[in-house]
Amino acid sequence: MFDDLIYLILGVLILTTLYVVVRTIIFARRHHRVESIEGMPVDAATVAEHLAASVRCQTVPLDDAGTPDPEAFRQLHQMLAETYPLVHQRLKREIIGGYSLLYTWQGSRADLEPVMVMAHQDVVSADPDGWTHPPFEGKIVDGFIWGRGTLDIKNQLIGIMEAAEALLRQGYRPERTILFGLGHDEETGGVNGCRVMGQVLKERGVHLAGIVDEGGGISAGLAAGVRGAVALIGVSEKGYLTVEFTVQGQAGHSSTPPPQTAIGILARALARLEAHPMPTHLRRLRPMYHGIGIAAPLYIQVPFANVWLFGPLLKRWLQRNPEMNASMRTTTALTIVRGGVEDNTIPPEASAIVNFRLLPGDSIADVLWHAKQVIDDDRVHFKPVEGKFNEALPISPHKGPAYESLSKVIRQVFDNPPVAPFIMLGGTDCQHFVPVCDHIYRFTALMMDESFRGLEHGIDERIPINGMANMVTFYSQLMQVWGTKQMA
Question: Strand 419-424 vs strand 115-120: parallel, antiparallel, or unpaired?
Answer without folding.
Answer: unpaired
